[in-house]
Amino acid sequence: MRLTTKGRFAVTAMIDLALRDEGGPVTLAAISERQGISLSYLEQLFGKLRRHSIVESVRGPGGGYTMARTLETVTVADIIAAVDEPLDATMCGGKEDCHETGRVGGGLQEGTPKGQCMTHDLWATLNKKMHEYLESVTLAQLVRQQRDRMAASQAAQQAGAPAVQNVIVDHRKPGVRGTPAIA
Amino acid sequence: MRLTTKGRFAVTAMIDLALRDEGGPVTLAAISERQGISLSYLEQLFGKLRRHSIVESVRGPGGGYTMARTLETVTVADIIAAVDEPLDATMCGGKEDCHETGRVGGGLQEGTPKGQCMTHDLWATLNKKMHEYLESVTLAQLVRQQRDRMAASQAAQQAGAPAVQNVIVDHRKPGVRGTPAIA
DNA sequence: GATATACTTGAGTCAATTAGTCGGGCTTGC
DNA sequence: GCAAGCCCGACTAATTGACTCAAGTATATC
């Protein structure tokens, strides 16, 4: 299981979509604006999500994306698997001869327990545990959680704090080229 | 928590060291040969392990590395933390808008939401779970496991199995032995 | 004290991967 | 038939991970 910002972007975007799915198709342009993710990048992400039947697209004016399944049946693991393609993180490719392949400068020496990677089980188990957790979290849970949060901060605002709308998170690290990260 | 091959190499090398620690200092050159890891790279790794008090070095002829603590007190998490430096995997790095509210408890939806980073808790919890698992596995367990494996393959050879080089694959896959199940 | 062994350090190289961008197509509602 | 919006594949700049090199320093033994 690979964990990159790509997967995180995808989860964030999916929460955004799920939050407003009821009002018909949601455009990528809108998600892009709200979440501060570039439109081109979102297209790339949602192309994969669509091919994995997590979302559906509606073309033409008034189009956009909608959920392809109920929120309860979409897990974080599904989303990450969809955008991050290759899924194994055991690092020794599921085979036992982890060390030999690709090693420069000759393989292993004789007289040693070779033929299997001493740490294989360790990584395999870790991988399984990570997967189990991500599979246990559904989009429905994240949406509910986010709704709670929004309600709470709204309450705080009414208590006197100035409104902050359109909160945009900048996932990018400083020093990247291209358009500066929003406001 | 970062997971790279560097961490994997380090764990592998540590198991190798632990397996022969009793016979005095083990040289990096020997580990390098047995495990097929370049000497220079091992030097880099063990420099960090030493600075984190996981191993001790003995200089001069007959020198090498020894364990600085007992096998029971060294966890996989320790080793990985030593070589892969800090960096948490929540990905919404400390600096960004993602206002982390001194998270330790880890429970979802804590008070005072900042409306930012909708996925922070998700990654923070995942991170915690990974850490918990890696912390639950000690070097002692891995060594025991490896000794079992070696004994088993030796027995297989003596039992008249046509000595197929040293390519002995572990058929039984009973998960990781000796690892306490974490919640 | 010369010498060989082995640890120590830090800077440097190189290739793979990531995180995007660009630009042109296709579909469909109005 | 135009424009909103999805669709798709090629392209690329940075970053990072993996690994090397070279020049040390410390110490045991003869």
Describe this structure in words.
The structure is a homodimer of 183-residue chains. Chain A has 183 residues and is mainly α. Helix content of chain A is 44%, strand content 4%. Chain A has helices spanning 5-19, 28-35, 39-51, 76-83, 120-136, 139-158; strands at 55-58, 64-67. The first copy, chain A, has a two-stranded antiparallel ribbon with strand order 1-2. In chain A, a hairpin with a 5-residue loop joins strand 1 and strand 2. The longest helix of chain A is centred in the last third of the chain and has 20 residues, at 139-158. In chain A, 31% of the residues are buried. Chains A and B meet through helix 1, helix 5 and helix 6 of A and helix 1, helix 2, helix 5 and helix 6 of B. The structure holds a DNA duplex (30 and 30 nucleotides).
Shape of chain A: globular
Which spans of chain A have pLDDT < 50 for at least 5 consecutive residues? 87-115, 163-183
Number of strands of chain A: 2
Distance between the termini of chain A: 34 Å
Q: In angstroms, what is the radius of gyration of chain A?
A: 21 Å
Structural descriptors:
about 180 residues, mainly alpha, two-stranded antiparallel ribbon, 6 helices, disordered C terminus, DNA-binding
Task: Give a summary of the structure in a few sentences.
2 copies of one chain form a homodimer. Helices cover 44% and strands 4% of the residues of chain A. The first copy, chain A, is mainly α.
